[in-house]
Amino acid sequence: MSFIERRYYHYAIAVAAGLLVALLGRFVFGSTGFANGGGLLMLCFLLLIPMALGAVTAHFTPGYMSRTWRAVWGPLCTVLLFLFCALLFHLEGMICVLIISPLFLFTSWLGAILYLAITNDKPDKNRTYTVAAFALLPFLLAPLEAQLNTPTDNRRVENTILIQAPAAVVWQHIIRVPPIQAQDLGPSLVDKIGFPRPVEATLSHEGVGGVRRATFERGVEFIETVDLWEPQRRLSFSIVPNTATIPPTTFDEHVTVGGRFFDVLRGTYELQPAGPGRTRLVLYSQQRLSTRLNPYAGLWTDYVMSEIQRRILEVIKQRCENTQQSTARR
């Protein structure tokens, strides 16, 4: 018995053709020729390549199949196979695959639907021209897109938590953060997709000019220079990644902190009175996002930063309240 039964040959050919287009796009846009234009973060790759994948898959799927299969299930199979190959052959890391998967699925369906709408009741020659146009368009437009400037978006992510402890206790737990154990943080999706967990934050000396070293797992370290010091009220600092300590395998190129596409610029703690013996602690950070698809990419960066900040605040809350309870029992 052959590996694929004869009646499934047409489906295998359709998926293979769509996969070939996607892989070709991955290697072309990942080459040095398009690096300055944004490479794999160019719109021609993120939007037009999956549209071409969907159109090609729909084109080679037998015409007697339902439109639902040609427009939805066929492209879905092709996208999932492409993402699997990207992970299997280490073309992309789990973080990037997770980020692009919804975008690839949606635009592949769009490409298949447009192809079917355009070629409805058209002769075979017209269908061939149409699918060829879908397949070639990303590569033809890429040199033009590469000449465009990449927009920059400055974003702010804020988290707040209520702590059953006075500001004096909370202050001591934010200026320095002793080592954090994995069980202290609890589970989070950001761990599963490969982001390192926070470990600790040290402080060279108190006051403006003090240097905090915020360390994360796998050698990730950020140098945080204090430029606003208001005891029991506000602590603010600039953030620079210590690239000398971060192994090149920790982050994918497209999500490297301090890289051309993303950077964390500042962090601020604010302590607000919330009643007798209670403090509202606010942590917000400012980031730079420089991609051609900032609104979409920003959804992911905001989520990741919010999760990191939320977990840090939860650790601080637990430690502050434990300290307060120990003090009250004395």
Automatic annotation (TrEMBL):
This is SRPBCC family protein. The chain crosses the membrane at residues 9-28, 40-60, 72-91, 97-117. InterPro entries: START-like_dom_sf (IPR023393). Signal peptide: none annotated. Keywords: Membrane, Transmembrane, Transmembrane helix. It comes from the Bacteria.
